[in-house]
Automatic annotation (TrEMBL):
Domain Aminopeptidase N-like N-terminal: residue ranges: 44-230
Documented EC number(s): 3.4.11.2
GO molecular function: alanyl aminopeptidase activity; metalloaminopeptidase activity; peptide binding; zinc ion binding
Sequence similarity: Belongs to the peptidase M1 family.
Phylogenetic classification of the source organism: Bacteria, Pseudomonadati, Bacteroidota, Flavobacteriia, Flavobacteriales
Annotated protein name in UniProt: Aminopeptidase N
Originating organism: Apibacter muscae
Cofactor(s) recorded in Swiss-Prot or TrEMBL: Zn(2+)
Keywords: Aminopeptidase, Hydrolase, Metal-binding, Metalloprotease, Protease, Zinc
Catalysed reactions, as listed in the record: Release of an N-terminal amino acid, Xaa-|-Yaa- from a peptide, amide or arylamide. Xaa is preferably Ala, but may be most amino acids including Pro (slow action). When a terminal hydrophobic residue is followed by a prolyl residue, the two may be released as an intact Xaa-Pro dipeptide
Domain Transcription initiation factor TFIID subunit 2 Ig-like: 478-544
Enzyme class: hydrolase
Length: 831
């Protein structure tokens, strides 16, 4: 499962600061959540399903084979949420007594069954996801399990689709099962759909038979074992683009508009399979690999075995892909789950990081392999920011049984911190031992349910090292080191004494890299800090160091405070090769740019010629163009970057800054830049033009003829329309309302967007109202973790009052009645 919590969290923090809401909601982690007790074991699940699409119902039959786990039993309890049960009997025809209440189907078996003795139950049922009562979370914003998208064709330009989402325990919303991650079952499924639709499920499509009523029945079979939450079914009018890895079919299910670009989006998948198979020395373990893109998906993406489901953000145009395939890390993440998560599965939600930490870290591994270390380190820096931005993250163990709700496990601890911890372990063990341990873990635990101790034992067996100290700190503990670092040089001893003080509790022990720079050369040292308040290390140095660089590659997950002079930061930028060291220097030099000419000169050097485009973008973004001296020195540099840098996103950032510097002066440059095929550059040109000539900004925005240009370009168009008080595309503006609000740089700008809200909510705008309501309801589970969850409610309540006022003026307007109902339903979902 891939979520966008870290990025969303950062946006929400910006929104907090904008509206000065600072308190964080207290978290309650009391109470132990055990693994699911195994009384009966799933063996095999056979399903036959059809659909009443307009009424959003699944008509199902199930044959489920089970056996007692150890103790004899004469009863069976299945999870079955939001269903009508019509028949329960043995597969041989004998009726069984049962009760169904509180989402539990309790069945009295015909006799007592002993360990190893299989039995098969037949169930006929109707699944009605609209009646499911379990709620979603910040990570997975709905838990209905089965989703009908535009089932009655009421939404223009939106396809009709059906898809499922099983994690955490929502597969039992569309078929009765033991919905626990420590269960494993094989499966087969017959799916009957209107013939114009294609289907996708786990395993291999064995047949497709057309029926006399205009439907078709597809038969999918999956012979291996996996957890119930990984069951999947996807249906819709998709184009299927075929690819392969060796003799394994690889497929991409996309909307037909994106068929020409499917291989640009997903085409690295075979190379990823090859790369991960080689790294793990464990070939991709399944019969096929398909990826489908769904509308209105409730999270980021989901690793359903052999059949990953992606949110619609995965679908990108060449104008976006020329800048960056923003979905590439997600593609890697879900693929890696097919080893860590699908093959070896967390035995409880408390152990979710044995799935998600690895999938998170696979993003780094792939980016490092394909684009180099700087690119991967930039991604890891974003993960670190996501973890550090949430202060409540510091109180959570990585493996934790004391969660309030299992959904709370899908956070920046399980994901971000988990990946950062694995990076530390990789560097401690070395690559060979790190990957060999992963291979051993997979071989020992394939098709099984696992916990973190299995990982520790595998790495210990391979490396011969005791790793309890590491796991106790990083897996079964919380927080991270917070260090104050200082040093002195002793000319007599020819040595540097480095003092490290831990200010947090509990204290950590850890290896730490320290680079001592003499005569332009780094001498690398690794020291071992004990779990004490103060550690002192004496390191030889023939001359007084030009720079002492602690944790240069930021391998240790820590917050480090160390005083350096402006000259040292300039030296650090110019002489250190590591991404983190260069970025830290750029960050500090940005603070000095208005007072130190050499700092500004170095910052501009970074902006124009750093070897990594990400740091060029960062340096450009840090220029303080409100300062006359910075403006004067930056103008020619930014002009050159905007027109000649080899990377489109670097050009785009320079264009944005020229808009801040003197937009009216550079209008011709913006017009010329808009002709670039890059959507990033087009978006920057529109935004920059608006600052110098609103009409030109709108003129450029009107030239965009792509219905789906992506978030950045849509935001730029929305800003141009708003600046020109043009309400002709309120649909587009309303779709981007929350993003506009989150990126607002001032209260005045935010007020402008609230004025748009008042316009929509005071009139008859059904599509626009739905866009805003859907976006607020979707963001609310994350927003309510912060004190401004109340703000979201207030926005909805005020919207309801305004819309009700419009209805009072036009009481016979059925459209307004539906909009009032829509907002009311949205508010109910937020309760």
């Amino acid at each position: 499962m891939y979520t966008k919590n870290a990025l969303l969290g950062k946006k929400l923090v910006l929104l907090i600061s904008l509206f000065t809401f600072f308190l964080v909601e207290a978290q309650d982690y009391s109470g132990y959540n055990p693994s699911s007790t195994m009384i009966n074991d799933l063996v095999h699940t056979k399903l036959k399903v059809g659909f009443d699409i307009p009424n959003e119902k699944l008509l199902g039959e199930e044959w489920v084979t089970l056996k007692p786990h150890f103790y004899p039993t004469d009863s069976l309890t299945l999870d079955a949420k939001g269903m009508e049960i019509s028949t329960v009997k043995l597969a041989n025809g004998k009726d069984l007594k049962y009760s169904y209440q509180n989402s539990k189907l309790k069945i009295q078996l015909d006799k007592t069954y002993k360990k190893g003795e299989e039995y098969e139950i037949y169930i006929k049922y109707t699944a009605i996801p609209s009646t499911v009562t379990q709620k979603g979370s910040a990570a997975i914003n709905s838990a209905k399990g089965l989703y009908f998208i535009n089932p009655r064709g009421e939404e223009k330009d939106k396809p009709t689709q059906i898809w499922t989402q099983g994690e955490t325990e929502a597969s039992s919303c569309w078929f009765p099962t033991i919905d626990a991650p420590n269960q494993k079952t094989s499966q087969e499924i017959y799916i009957t759909v209107p013939d114009q639709y294609v289907t996708l499920s786990n395993g291999v499509l064995k047949s497709g038979i057309k029926n006399s009523d205009g439907t078709r029945t597809d038969y999918w079979k999956f012979d291996q074992k996996h957890a119930p939450y990984l069951f999947f079914m996807g249906i819709g009018d998709f184009a299927v683009v075929k690819d392969k890895w060796k003799n394994i079919p690889v497929e991409y299910y996309v909307e037909k508009e994106f068929e020409p670009y499917a291989k640009q989006i997903f085409g690295d998948t075979p190379d990823m399979i090859e790369f991960f198979s080689n790294k793990l020395q464990y070939p991709y373990p399944w019969e096929k690999y398909s990826q489908m893109v769904a509308r209105d998906y409730v999270s980021g993406a989901m690793e359903n075995t052999t059949s990953t489901l992606h949110a619609e953000n995965a679908q990108q145009k060449p104008g976006q892909l020329i800048d960056k395939n923003s979905w590439e890390p997600v593609i890697a993440h879900e693929l890696f789950h097919h080893w860590f998560g699908d093959l070896a599965t967390n035995e409880s939600w408390a152990n979710l990081p044995v799935n998600e930490a690895f999938a998170n870290y696979s993003e780094y591994l792939w980016l490092e392999h394909k684009y180099g270390k700087d690119y991967a380190e930039e991604h890891r820096a974003e993960e670190l920011d996501g973890y550090l931005n949430g202060g409540e993250n510091f109180t959570k163990d990585l493996i934790r049984f004391q969660y309030k709700d299992k959904e709370d496990m899908f956070d920046a601890v399980s994901y971000n911190k988990g990946g950062l911890v694995l990076h530390m372990l990789r560097n401690y063990l070395g690559d060979d031992a790190f990957y060999a341990g992963m291979n051993l873990y997979l071989n020992q635990n394939k098709y099984k349910a696992t916990e973190a101790h299995h990982l520790r034992l595998a790495w210990e067996e391979i490396s011969g090292k005791d790793l309890n100290w590491f796991f106790n700190q990083w897996f079964f503990g919380n927080g991270h080191p917070k260090l104050k670092v200082s040093y002195t040089y002793n000319d007599t001893k020819k040595s540097v004494t480095v003092t490290i003080t831990q200010t947090q509790e509990p204290k950590f022990q850890f290896p730490l890299d320290i680079d001592i720079y003499e005569n332009g050369k780094a001498n690398h040292h690794q020291v071992w800090a004990k779990a004490t308040e103060t550690n002192t290390f004496e390191i030889p140095s023939k001359t007084k160091p030009q720079l002492v660089n602690v944790n240069p590659d930021n391998i240790l997950l820590a917050e480090i405070t160390m005083e350096k002079t402006p000259e040292q930061y300039i030296y650090q930028y110019k002489n250190t090769p590591e991404y983190y060291s260069r970025k830290e220097a750029i960050n500090k030099l940005a603070d000095l740019q208005t007072s130190n000419p050499l700092a500004l000169e170095t910052l501009l050097q970074a902006a124009s010629s750093d070897p990594f485009e990400g740091l060029r973008v960062f340096a450009i973004s840090q220029l303080d163009l409100t300062n006359p001296k910075v403006k004067q020195k930056s103008a020619s540099v930014l002009e050159k970057i905007a027109t000649s840098d080899k990377k489109t996103l670097v050009q785009a950032e320079a264009i944005k800054q020229l808009g801040e510097l003197d937009a009216a002066k550079y209008l011709n440059l913006f017009k010329k830049s808009f002709e670039s095929p890059s959507y990033g550059i087009k978006a920057a040109a529109i935004e920059a033009s608006v600052k110098g000539d609103k009409a030109l900004g709108k003129e450029l925005a009107d030239k965009v003829d792509d219905k789906n240009p992506g978030k950045d370009l849509e935001l730029a168009i929305a800003k141009a329309l708003i600046a020109n008080q043009d309400n002709s595309k309120l649909d587009l503006i309303s779709k981007n309302f929350l993003n506009l609000l989150m990126y607002a740089k001032s209260q005045q700008e935010a007020d402008t967007y609230f004025a748009i809200l008042r316009t929509i909510m005071s009139g008859d705008y059904p599509v626009e109202t739905k866009n805003i309501v859907d976006s607020i309801v979707k963001i609310y589970p994350q927003a309510k973790k912060y004190s401004f969850g109340d703000l979201m409610k207030q926005v909805m309540e005020a919207s309801l009052q305004m819309k009700q006022g419009a209805l009072n003026i036009n009481p016979s307007n059925n459209s307004l009645k539906k909009q009032v109902s829509m907002i009311s339903e949205g508010l109910n979902k937020m309760m």
